[in-house]
Specification:
Pfam families: CDC50 (PF03381). By secondary structure, the protein is α+β, with helices and mostly antiparallel strands. 33% of the residues lie in helices and 23% in strands. It is built from nine helices and 17 strands. The strands form six sheets. A five-stranded antiparallel beta sheet has the order 2-16-7-13-12. A four-stranded antiparallel beta sheet has the order 5-15-10-11. A two-stranded antiparallel sheet has the order 1-17. It is extended and about 100 Å long.
């Protein structure tokens, strides 16, 4: 009986220990994954306003979308901020049916040109947006060429509080990695683009997109890059300037007026236009993240050890079985 129990314990104990190891490893891994997935949270809030049908300030009976076919149009919209919007505060525009504009034209561009290598012969993909006809009958190449650049959105927004404009900055809206594919040609910018025309439907040349920040012009203009990045449906247009002492902490609760310079033709886009003011940002809980990484790492190590021992045990048992099979029965001894 004792030898039988001893044999049973010999077989059972390693199996139980391996099972416990696998369970502990799985628990550690699952807990680590949960901690990692919940270590990032979104803080802040945002205000969204549909300004599609906003009324012409000089004639409230008319909508700006109907007026801009014959003249510029501005409208005002009341915004109520119910709680403190902690810095950084960013303004976005969003075209609900953005893909209807960019979808058919996303390939109509010259990436070689956008990288700073100007050529008198734009890429074939730019199609009808490659050249303009000059008064003397010559063809002048367009930079940036293509339908996507030509369709660049140009509604603009400003925010007022207590009859004063909120100071804003229109740079620092995207990361350096997002800017990487876009480069200006070397040398003087005006000289480099001298032999090129602005896109057909642009009011000014690519070298004059930002008159406040000269370095934010050409193909490196952030608004231009943001428009060309078709994966961004919600597009940043400016951020509140925290260098101003009155707005160092963002936007205080209260009533604001949004001024919209309605410029993008309804004939080109007739869907919803949204203005979004947001203080939302992702915040990482470092202690939770570090705990998640630690538990996941320990769990993986335990699982690897447990599985390795399980495989080793199986292999050992198979080897013993093979030995027994090859040895065969012991022959009887003659007396």
């Amino acid at each position: 009986m004792d030898s039988s129990n001893g044999k049973f314990d010999y077989v059972r104990k390693p199996v139980v220990l391996l099972a416990i190891g696998l369970i502990i490893g799985l628990i550690f891994c699952i807990t680590g994954i949960i901690l990692l997935s919940t270590s990032t949270e979104t803080k802040g809030y945002e205000v969204t306003n549909d300004y599609t049908d906003c009324k012409y300030f000089d004639n409230p009976n008319e909508r700006c979308k109907d007026v801009i076919a014959r003249q510029p149009c501005a409208c005002y919209i009341a915004l109520n901020i119910s709680e403190q919007m902690e810095a950084p505060v960013t303004a976005f525009y969003e075209l609900e049916s953005y893909e209807l504009i960019t979808g058919p034209y996303s390939k109509s561009r010259d990436d070689q040109q956008l990288s700073g290598h100007l050529s008198p012969t734009p890429a074939a993909s730019c199609g009808n947006y490659s050249y303009v006809q000059t008064p003397d009958g010559q063809k002048k190449p367009i930079a940036p060429c293509g339908a996507l650049a030509d369709f660049m959105f140009n509604d603009t927004f400003s925010l007022q509080v207590n009859s004063e404009y909120v100071p804003t900055i229109n740079t620092g809206l995207i990361s350096d990695d997002e800017k990487e594919p876009f480069h200006n040609p070397e040398g003087n910018l005006e000289e480099a683009f001298k032999q090129f025309s602005k896109p057909i439907n642009w009011p000014r040349n690519v070298t004059q997109l930002d008159r406040v920040h000269p370095e934010n012009n050409g193909f490196q203009n952030e608004h231009f890059i943001i428009w060309m990045k078709t994966d961004l449906k919600r597009k940043p247009t400016w951020r509140v300037n925290v260098a101003d002492d009155n707005f160092a902490n963002g936007l205080a609760p209260g009533s604001y007026n949004l001024r919209v310079e309605y410029a993008y033709p309804a004939s080109r886009y007739d869907g919803k236009r949204l203005f979004v003011l947001s203080s939302r940002q992702e915040v990482v809980n470092k202690s939770r993240r570090d705990a998640g990484i630690a538990l996941l790492s320990i769990g993986v190590i335990i699982l690897v050890i447990a599985i390795s021992l399980l495989v080793l045990r199986k292999w050992e048992r198979c080897r013993n079985c093979l030995r027994s099979a090859y040895k065969g029965p012991i022959p009887a001894q003659d007396n």
